[in-house]
Amino acid sequence: MKSFFIGNLEVKLPIVQGGMGVGVSLSGLASAVANEGGVGVISCAGLGLIHKGHGDFLQNCIWGLQEELRIAREKTKGIIGVNIMVALSNFADMAR
Ligand SMILES: Cc1cc2nc3c(=O)[nH]c(=O)nc-3n(C[C@H](O)[C@H](O)[C@H](O)COP(=O)(O)O)c2cc1C
Fold first, then answer.
1. Does the CB atom of residue 83 touch ligand 1 within 6 A?
2. Residue 68: its pLDDT value, please?
3. Is the CB of 78 under 6 A from ligand 1?
4. Would strands 9-11 and 39-43 be described as parallel, antiparallel, or unpaired?
5. Which residues in the chain land under pLDDT 70?
6. Does residue 2 lie in a domain region?
7. Are 25 and 17 in contact (CB under 8 A)?
8. What is the total count of domains within the chain?
9. What is the per-residue pLDDT for 54?
């Protein structure tokens, strides 16, 4: 399989892992995929249900995404993406 580029980033293994919400695709899966040369994806759906104790649901979601990105960055230098479904009520806040 041929590699492809996203901007100047080369995706050596041309696989983009699907975002899977409510705790399925977090930093662990995403960093494992990225370490194999693919694009690992962290899903934002339901992050506030996983990461509790930082305020209301929205604040937990934002804190959770920052935390998952931080952990993923500890585990890989590969390519990590974030999946934010437009249908989510907190889409704009998560994108920001
Ligand atoms: C358990 C599970 C959770 C999913 N959660 C999300 C999600 O949060 N966001 C999203 O865009 N797609 C979600 N999907 C859809 C997948 O990312 C993917 O698009 C879908 O499974 C089709 O890919 P496939 O044909 O390779 O299975 C989810 C799928 C599964 C199985």
1. yes
2. 98
3. no
4. unpaired
5. none
6. no
7. yes
8. 1
9. 96
